[in-house]
Amino acid sequence: MRTLLWQEAFKLLKKKSTYWVTIFLIISGLGQAFLEKLYPHNKVLTAPMAFSSSFGATTWLIFIMIAACATVLSMEFQYGTVKEIIYQQYSRSTILISKWLVMLGYSIYLYVMTGAVALLGKVLFVNDQFSLTAIDPYSNHLTFLQQWLASMSSSFMTLWLVLSVVFLFATLFRSATMAVTAGIVAFFAFNAVSVLMFKLITKFNWVKWNPFNFLNFSNQITDPARHTLTQLSDTQLLIGSLGYTALFLAIGLFSFRKQSV
Amino acid sequence: MNQPILAVHQLNKSFGAKQVLHDISFACQRGHVIGLVGANGAGKTTLMKAILGLTTATGQISIDGQSTSFDHHEVLHEVGALIEYPSIYPFMSGRDHLKLFAKGPRRHQRIEQTIAELHLAKYIDRPAKGYSLGMKQKLGIALAILNDPKLVILDEPMNGLDPQANKELRELIISKRQAGTTFLISSHILGELQRIADDLLIIDHGKIVKQTTMADLLAASSHQLILSTSNDVKARKVLTKAGYQLTEDPKPTIQVGAETKLEPILDVLSQQQVTVLDVQHHDADLEDSVLKLLDHNQLQKEG
To answer: Which of B87, B89, B90 is the closest to A83 by Cβ?
Structure first.
């Protein structure tokens, strides 16, 4: 397993995109913080709101991680390198789990890095606009710092629910395009169909257990009023997100274990 | 240590209703080069993939005495392989590929040694996406031998190699064989295979139709004496009358055994005033032997 983790990390670090992503996220985060400094009185996106999403980084991270997870497996099929990996002594399960773990590490790195950039941007450009220890009036009486941390951790959970679907499609279809599409649809089309879903939930209560509803976890953390729509508590959303993530990953693993190449 | 490095017993494989491997059984002795020969679609690559746990199959496979299968193949750390085409990450250099797959102690020395053995130094630090087919092929072979495996499985390793690279590969295989490495090689370039293989597995429509040594196969194949005489027409008549078996060639061409003596042939012709100007020996090569064997197998099936 250690060798496989090392191999996966080696490949990730050899991709130029890995470095460009870091540079892009730093520029984007600091750039948005700078814009908040230039337009301190805008009401559309106030500095505390922008900070709560690490100056826009959490949305970028979803795109970046969908692309990274879709290609980490499908590239092996595309380049034929999956053969080189499988005819090492390791089992297919270990191979796939090592890919998950490296992507988990990568996503944690990106969250920590963008978090650090957000703190830097706050200190450099919008330090005079709000205090991290002040209470956010729109949240559950949390400070801006607590609100930011809660938002980051809940969006991380939601991200991994989406990524489990991406991994599942990458395994089933061996295609990055299919996996990316699945990820984008799972996350963004959800917003389009959520109104319909909430209507259905009011009619049929059991619909609240469908996996799309659990994508509301991070939204509900930042906007507690959403509870009336999801009909689920924060804890239920957390456990459900973890459960569905594990389920989708497990189906992908089961499928990969049976695949001939 | 007489245990074979690779033993395959009653291996069967089907794709849906189509059976592609039928009761394949064979063993590979240590330090031998085994040529796997057969037409396109005969099942060579599928057989290699089954050995490497890349595809499912029923039957038993053991490597170095340990059983291996699709699900459990820990023993494959003793095996290096190149299957179908070299697998290359375009965003990495050749050296990165070697670093990625090198395992165990003395990794750095083995990487340098492999680069030297396959003469890769000129381009090993360049991005692999710019490699020609031959360069990729050599990198694929380098990856197969990198970790000093006991068994190396190569599927059409001469693909895309120029004559010089072919010669270097042949010399490398011979030197590794002398050091105890076993090679299972499939190739359509039978001339090359004839020069390096000790044993042969001939596969046709998913069945092994012949398992033999190269020496035995060539010894059992036909030898011909091609005569140039002062009167070829008369020579043919004389030799036929004397009981020799001639081919249809207009030149008097006699089918003979491996140990045939020339003197009686010359005598019978000189008695009839036919002068022999030149005698050429022609031994069937691996290509002739394999084609004949596959033809024979086809005829048997049709019959």
So the answer is: B87
- Matching CATH number, B222-283, of 3.30.70.100, 1.10.10.10, 1.10.3720.10, 3.20.20.30: 3.30.70.100
Distance between CA atoms of A258 and A255, rounded to whole angstroms?
Answer: 5
Residue B84: how many CA atoms within 13 Å on its side-chain side? 17
CA distance B107 to B88: 20
| R_g of chain A computed on alpha carbons | 20
Q: In angstroms, rounded to a whole number, what is the distance separating the alpha carbons of residues A111 and A227?
A: 26
Cα dihedral sign for B132, B138, B142, B143? positive
Q: Which of B27, B22, B80, B21 is nearest to B45 (CA)?
A: B21
Chosen from B76, B96, B100, B184 to mutate, greatest number of chain A CBs within 10 A: B100
Indicate yes or no: CB of B79 within 8 angstroms of CB of A260: no
- The encoded tokens of residue A190 equal 């959800």
Domain enclosing residue A46, as ranges: 2-258
Q: Where are the domains of chain B?
A: 6-218, 222-283
CA distance A172 to A115: 34
| Number of domains forming the structure of chain A | 1
B60, containing H or E segment:
strand B58-63
Question: Residue B296, SS3?
Answer: helix
Tell the CATH superfamily of the B6-218 domain: P-loop containing nucleotide triphosphate hydrolases (3.40.50.300)
Q: Are A33 and A116 in contact, with CB atoms under 8 Å apart? A: no
Which chain B residue has its CA at the smallest distance from A8's CA?
B100
**Structure token digits, residue A20:** 């460009």
Alpha-carbon span A32 to A28, nearest angstrom: 6
CA A136 to chain centre: 24
Are A86 and B52 a contacting pair at CB < 8 A? Answer: yes
DSSP E strand stretches across chain A: none
* Angle between helix A176-184 and A57-79 (nearest 10): 160
Please report, in tens digits, the pLDDT of each residue of chain A (261 residues total): 899 999 999 999 999 999 999 999 999 999 999 988 888 777 777 888 888 889 989 889 999 999 999 999 999 999 999 999 998 889 999 999 999 999 999 999 999 999 999 999 999 998 887 888 888 776 667 888 888 998 899 999 999 999 999 999 999 988 888 888 888 888 877 777 888 888 899 899 898 999 989 988 988 887 888 888 889 999 999 999 999 999 999 999 999 999 888
